[in-house]
Design a protein that fits this description.
heterodimer, A: about 75% helix, B: alpha/beta, Rossmann fold, Alpha-Beta Plaits, 2 domains, 6-stranded mixed sheet, 4-stranded antiparallel sheet, 10 helices
Chain lengths: ~260, ~300
């Protein structure tokens, strides 16, 4: 057998998607309800007291930020549990003994986790249309950012899943790193609204670039230029890819 | 005959500094049943895990049907099926789905006929749509075997296949292994139940403290190392071995009720007729006579303790 183990990739992808479908209610209903609550509280109740940002009213302004917030946390938790669980139950022996390369394994796991994130992102987008007026200036770029971010953060999640030695560590990074970075990354405001030095400090937060680029695809304007956004997203993607290659080269926390 | 699996100079030292294997050489013949015997912690599972690609060896090479398992893992691994010792299964999956997953993982297109055949052979066909978590321990072990056979491997590794399995399932398992061998599958099993090796294996390897002590044809091994015993149940108990019987090195057992003679099964002259004559001369009467062969277990214990 040579070439690519397509059956193997498909088997993993299907297995992971089946896992999602088993918990369909939790997978889909939770983000929908959570974002609806955000729209009611921030968009409706508080948002009506907030001025429009640029020419975009606050409710609409929230949409890209909320999608991004969910995308990051969902991608990480999906992919990390996907690879952590076989480690936990011991079924990883089969993955390690199978004639499947590291890249094929990652394509299966990350592909499935990213698919789920993109679907959830689109569901939130549709849900938001019930609450606010939606405007998408660059739909192709919007989809590209959605997919790229999902893939990058699913890879990041995969790395966390390999690294984690317990369920506690599994939720450590999303809760203590990603959620704060997203809240401080302009998900709910434009960083132009921040006083100095916080505005400059924010520019060191990679999530700012992700949210900004995504927001640009909706309203044609963001906190930073779209080129920077694309660059940071691409850089993060390559960084995660490099880490994954290193993990499999050395067998780090997968093999003795 | 070309061997299907060739392990040479494989050593493994874990990060903790524990030496699990030291310079292991092993050739497995095509189509044989090979039993790897050893006490717990001897290195059996480490050796299997290295061959299957789950553990990276510190040094040494492994050829699977001529393919280097480390440099060309894809070719090597697609020929191997592994049934691990632990009952590691996806609890939420159904039996049929988990088998389809395994087959796909090993790069094969779905084959309903083959899947059905394997499930029927393992008496799992009726359970194909059951979730694995609903199955008993013995059933889960069969599911693991079904997964390992899903991609039609040439070599099947069974790591302690009958640990914690009831007697009837153990018999079933032995029957299954026999039928796999008939189909040309090479089988390597580890066990610490000597009975299992004695029942099934063509050849036996004994491993202890990371070293392969011997590899031998089972029958030859038992012949070579096998001793036979003859027990005579006496009518009158004796307090000591009577004078005149020194040349047979007899021992008294069971508080003087039995006289035991240990002899080499291979020797041309066993010394039995002359012993019986001598006993008659001395007037020592016996009511029963019993001979027994030493089992693989005796040989094994002898070997492991000697080193």
């Amino acid at each position: 057998m040579t070439g690519i183990n397509l059956h193997g990739i498909w088997a993993i992808y299907r297995f992971e998607m089946a896992r999602t479908l088993r918990t369909l209610w939790q997978s889909v209903a939770t983000p929908v309800i959570t974002t609806s609550l955000y729209f009611i509280v921030f968009g409706g109740a508080i948002g009506s007291k907030i001025d429009a940002i640029g020419d975009v009213n606050y409710g609409s302004f929230l949409v890209p930020g909320l999608i991004m917030l969910t995308l990051l946390t969902q991608s990480i938790s999906n992919a990390s549990i996907g690879i952590y669980f076989p480690k936990f139950t011991g079924t990883i022996f089969e993955l390690l003994s199978a004639p499947i390369s590291a890249i094929e394994l990652v394509v299966g796991y990350v592909g499935a986790a990213a698919t789920k994130s993109v679907v959830i992102g689109l569901i939130i987008l549709i849900t938001s249309a019930f609450f606010v007026d939606l405007r998408i200036d660059h739909p192709v770029a919007m989809i590209a950012f959605l997919v790229l971010t999902s893939v990058a953060f699913s890879m990041f999640g995969f790395i966390i899943g390999v690294w984690a030695k317990g369920f506690e560590q599994l939720s450590f990074v999303p809760a203590l790193l990603i959620t704060p970075l997203t809240f401080l990354g302009g998900a709910f405001y434009s960083i132009d609204m921040l006083p100095e030095p916080w505005r400059t400090v924010s520019l060191f937060n990679p999530v700012v670039y992700l949210v900004s680029g995504f927001r640009w695809s909706f309203f044609g304007a963001g906190d930073v230029s779209v080129g920077w956004s694309l660059g940071v997203t691409g850089f993060f993607l390559l960084l995660c890819l490099g880490l994954i290659v290193a993990i499999f080269r050395t067998g780090y926390r997968l093999k003795n | 005959m070309q061997s299907i699996l060739s392990v040479s100079q494989v050593s493994k030292t874990y990060a903790s500094g524990q030496k699990a294997l030291e310079h292991v050489d092993l050739e497995i013949r095509r189509g044989e049943i090979f039993a790897l015997l050893g006490p717990n912690g001897a290195g059996k599972t480490t050796l299997i895990s290295i061959i299957c690609g789950i553990v990276t060896p510190s040094s040494g090479t492994i050829l699977v049907d001529g393919h280097n398992a480390i440099r060309h893992p894809r070719e090597a691994r697609s020929r191997i099926g592994l049934v691990p010792q632990e009952l590691s299964v996806d609890m939420f999956e159904t039996v049929a789905a988990t088998m389809r997953f395994s087959r796909g993982l090993f790069g094969k297109a779905p084959d309903k006929a083959h899947t059905e055949q394997v499930l029927r052979d393992l008496s799992l066909w009726d359970k194909r749509d059951a979730k694995i978590m609903e199955l008993s321990g013995g059933m889960k072990r069969r599911v693991l075997i079904a997964k390992a056979l899903s991609h039609e491997p040439d070599i099947l590794f069974l790591d302690e296949p009958t640990a914690g399995v009831d007697v009837s399932l153990r018999r079933d398992m032995w029957k299954l292994i026999g039928s796999l061998r008939a189909r040309g599958v090479t089988i390597i099993l580890t066990t610490h139940y000597i009975e299992e090796a004695e029942e099934m294996a063509d050849r036996v390897g004994v491993i202890n403290k990371g070293q392969l002590l011997l590899v031998e044809d089972k029958a030859a091994l038992m012949k070579k190392l096998g001793k036979r015993e003859m027990d005579l149940s006496l009518v009158e108990p004796l307090s000591e071995v009577p004078a005149g019987l020194e040349e047979w090195h007899l021992s008294l057992e069971d508080e003087g009720h039995r006289l035991r003679y240990v002899f080499d099964a291979q020797a041309e002259r066993t010394g039995i007729p002359s012993l019986l004559r001598k006993l008659g001369e001395l007037g020592i009467a016996f009511k029963d006579l019993d001979t027994s062969k030493s089992s693989l277990e005796d040989i094994f214990v002898d070997l492991v303790e000697k080193r």
